[in-house]
């Protein structure tokens, strides 16, 4: 790369530059600078002698150092060679920008899959990234082409990483340091027995939602000819899981996010159920969306935004990468749930169910609110607990007398 400039702000073992990594070394009464830079996530190395400039030890003024040269891969002049060159001449080394693998040279750089997992686990712990080790394992397993953690066998862990694999690992792990969810970094994630594509900012389904799907499936048979409505599809995890398990069902989804609609369509197409899925990009507000007029459904399923305004500021850093609209449930967290309940009677069959995934304190409030809203023609049937024994799911039903 021609025309790169390094800026030396002080000759006394202090250097700053517009490069990823700078080594300022002292030899007798002069200073030598060796530079390595990462372009587009890939390492380009300099021959140790190809970019060298010396300054007298007495020099104190700021100097601009310009040099025209070409950076390139060279098997004989990599990090190890630079270190050997420096060590051979008894230079004193100072590293800058050593908060990532870019600042590691020689034997300090992770060489094997296992070493990379250990290194990045430590980096994640140091930066307070949750689930540090498991995050490193998932990311690195993906980077080396594995589909599951069980494929990290003894032989795989001992295998030396290729240069391109090291670059890929570093790039992905740097994203995790920003608290990017692992699901977004990998680009896919397992939900029950399915593997779904994941893309930001579409909300990543939680483990509790897998339980929610199981709960709904327990109340229907594969032979049932159902027309279901899902309000808010996200990745398509719920509707696609139901379609796979209920081969005679058709599901209509309504979702305001364009990104979520596109991702649901991609996942449904990939998993072969798109022909039984209708997707409407629209918002369910205080009025019934026009796209649903004239339809009748056997049930509504929804994992709507249910986090109250005051609780949004306490969500984890990972969640901040996701669409805020998939989280915000209004002042009490019930805004969307109430809208669904108020309009459901226009499109649900008699004795049809509404299945909701909610916050842990919502079930009693929903029950009390429905008792004060006879026009909804809904009754609260039951609350179900999640695997942590917290009240999480609600079953409502259209009253029988509704005609």
Descriptive overview:
The protein contains twelve helices and 17 strands. The chain is elongated. By secondary structure, the chain is α+β, with helices and mostly antiparallel strands. Helix content is 29%, strand content 24%. Helix 3 runs antiparallel to helix 5. A hairpin with a 2-residue loop joins strand 4 (30-39) and strand 5 (42-44). The strands form four sheets. The protein has a seven-stranded mixed beta sheet, sandwiched between helices. Strands 3, 4, 5, 6 and 8 form a five-stranded antiparallel beta sheet that branches. A three-stranded antiparallel beta sheet has the order 2-1-7, with no helix packed on it.
Query: What is the CA–CA distance across the termini?
Result: 76 Å
Structural class: alpha+beta
Low-confidence spans: 1-107
Report the order of strands and helices.
EEEEEEEHEHHHHHEEHEHEHEEHHEHEE
Trace the largest sheet across and list its strands: 13-12-11-14-15-17-16
The biggest sheet amounts to:
7 strands, mixed
- C-alpha-based Rg, rounded: 29 Å
Mean pLDDT across all amino acids:
79
Number of strands: 17
Proportion of residues in β-strands:
15-25%
Helix content: 25-40%
Overall form: elongated
Tally of separate helices: 12
Short structural summary:
With 403 residues, the protein is α+β, with helices and mostly antiparallel strands. It contains twelve helices and 17 strands. Helix 2 packs parallel to helix 5.
Attribute tags:
single chain, 403 residues, alpha+beta, 7-stranded mixed β-sheet, disordered N terminus
């Amino acid at each position: 790369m021609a025309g790169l400039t390094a800026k030396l702000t002080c000759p006394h073992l202090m250097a700053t530059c517009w490069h990823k990594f700078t080594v300022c070394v002292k030899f007798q009464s002069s200073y030598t600078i060796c530079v390595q830079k990462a372009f587009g996530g890939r390492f380009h190395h300099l021959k140790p002698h190809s970019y060298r400039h010396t300054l007298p030890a007495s020099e104190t003024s700021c100097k601009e150092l310009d040099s025209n040269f070409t950076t390139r891969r060279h098997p004989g002049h990599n990090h190890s060679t630079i270190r050997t060159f420096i060590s051979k001449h008894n230079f004193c080394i100072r590293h800058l920008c050593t908060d990532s693998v870019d600042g590691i040279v020689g034997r300090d750089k992770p060489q094997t899959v296992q070493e990379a997992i250990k290194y990045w686990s430590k980096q994640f712990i140091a930066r307070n990234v949750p689930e540090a080790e498991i995050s490193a394992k998932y990311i690195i397993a993906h980077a080396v082409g594995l589909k599951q953690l069980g494929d990290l066998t003894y032989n795989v862990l001992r295998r030396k990483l290729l240069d391109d694999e090291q670059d890929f690992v570093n790039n992905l792990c740097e994203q995790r340091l920003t608290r990017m969810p692992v699901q977004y970094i990998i680009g896919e994630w397992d939900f029950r027995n399915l593997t779904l594509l994941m893309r930001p900012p579409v909300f990543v389904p939680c483990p509790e939602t897998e339980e929610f799907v199981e709960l709904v499936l327990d109340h229907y048979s594969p032979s049932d000819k159902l027309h279901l409505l899902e309000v808010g599809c996200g990745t398509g995890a719920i509707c696609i899981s139901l379609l796979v398990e209920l081969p005679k069902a058709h599901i209509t989804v309504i979702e305001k996010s364009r990104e979520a609609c596109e991702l649901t369509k991609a996942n449904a197409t990939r998993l072969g159920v798109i022909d039984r899925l209708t997707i409407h990009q629209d918002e369910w507000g205080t009025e019934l969306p026009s796209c649903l007029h004239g339809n009748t459904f056997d049930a509504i399923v929804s994992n709507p935004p249910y986090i109250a305004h005051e609780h949004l500021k306490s969500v984890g850093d990972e969640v901040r990468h996701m669409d805020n609209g998939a989280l915000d449930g209004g002042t009490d967290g019930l805004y969307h749930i109430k809208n669904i309940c108020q309009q459901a009677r226009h499109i649900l069959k008699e004795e049809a169910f509404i299945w909701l995934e909610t916050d842990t304190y919502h079930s009693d409030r929903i029950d009390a609110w429905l008792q004060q809203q006879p026009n909804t023609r809904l009754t609260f049937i039951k609350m179900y607990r999640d695997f942590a024994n917290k009240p999480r799911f609600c079953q409502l039903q259209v009253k029988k007398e509704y005609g």
